[in-house]
Structures are given as C-alpha cells and as structure tokens.
TrEMBL record:
<dbReference type="InterPro" id="IPR044974">
    <property type="entry name" value="Disease_R_plants"/>
</dbReference>
<dbReference type="GO" id="GO:0006952">
    <property type="term" value="P:defense response"/>
</dbReference>
<dbReference type="GO" id="GO:0043531">
    <property type="term" value="F:ADP binding"/>
</dbReference>
<protein>
    <submittedName>
        <fullName>Resistance protein</fullName>
    </submittedName>
</protein>
<dbReference type="InterPro" id="IPR027417">
    <property type="entry name" value="P-loop_NTPase"/>
</dbReference>
<dbReference type="InterPro" id="IPR002182">
    <property type="entry name" value="NB-ARC"/>
</dbReference>
<feature type="domain" description="NB-ARC">
    <location>
        <begin position="30"/>
        <end position="140"/>
    </location>
</feature>
<dbReference type="Pfam" id="PF00931">
    <property type="entry name" value="NB-ARC"/>
</dbReference>
Length: 158
C-alpha cells in the first residue's frame, strides 16, 4: 500500500524518497547512518552523501531539507530512534512535506506525536487466500493438495 501511494503521488513533490526495510537496515552496524545517507542522497539528488554519525545526519537533514517540499516514506519502522534519526521534528522540513510511516506499532506513532493515523483493515479470508496464492503459486487458487496448508497460512498471518 505504501509503495502504491508513493508511486501515485511522488511526482507532486520537489523530491521523494522511499526507505524500504527501516527495521532490518537499522539493526545492522551503522544502519541508521546508512538510512540517513540514502535519504539525503535521494532527496538532494547529489549522488552519495557521506554521514559520519546519527547526530551529523540529523543536522544535515535539518539544514538541507528545510527548504525542499518532499515526500518521504519510511517502511517497516519499529523503534522511536529510527523516527528521531530520519523524521525527528516538523520544523526539519519545508511546508508541504509529507512523511508516511508504515509500522505495525501504532503506539510508536503516538509516541512520535504523528498527527494522522490510518489503520489498515485486515483482508477477508477470500482476499487473503487470493493474495497468498498469487505470491505462492502465481494463480488465484491454491494448487491441488495445498488448500489446507494455504488456509492455515492465511489464518496464521491474519
């Protein structure tokens, strides 16, 4: 959903960046610094930007992005430190900038004082089964002899 939103509105902004797998990348050594580098490089369009520390990255984001109307999507956020390093305060960014945060933890959004929260609705069982089958079998229904296992998988994943 976040990628679809990004693709449909990114051309309305001066610059745009979709940061995939924030949780996974930030858990790696120097992960937050690498995410800040990617964010700055994509939004400024200046090639690779070097950041030596999270604090330096925060300073650079505040300084360099305060005059750019940007779209930023942060995918799979699971810690407040990630938000503080990548989207700390509203005054870091220009008026009109939009930051979309995809997370499974709505309390994280409240802790970061996010203004608007959209909670995804679960898919119905038939929708879930179809989505699962498209990804697992490249068809709308489970392969023969995989019906029970497919149904167990969608119920487990909700």
């Amino acid at each position: 959903l976040a990628k679809g939103l990004y693709n449909s509105i990114c051309d309305r902004f001066e610059c745009a960046c979709f940061l995939f797998n924030v949780r996974k990348i930030s858990d790696q050594e120097e992960g937050l610094v690498r995410l800040q580098q990617t964010l700055l490089s994509k939004l400024l369009g200046e090639g690779e930007i070097k950041v030596r520390s999270v604090e330096e990255g925060i300073s650079m984001i505040k300084e360099k992005l305060s005059k750019k109307r940007a779209l930023i999507i942060l995918d799979d956020v699971d810690k407040i430190e990630q938000l503080k390093a990548l989207a700390g305060e509203c005054d870091w960014f220009s008026y009109g900038t939009r930051i979309v945060i995809a997370t499974r933890d709505k309390y994280l959004l409240a802790a970061h004082e996010v203004e608007k929260i959209y909670e995804m609705k679960l898919l119905s069982d038939p929708e879930s089964l179809e989505l699962f089958c498209w990804n697992a079998f490249k068809m709308t229904r489970p392969k023969a002899n995989y019906e029970d296992l497919s149904n167990q998988a969608i119920h487990y994943a909700q």
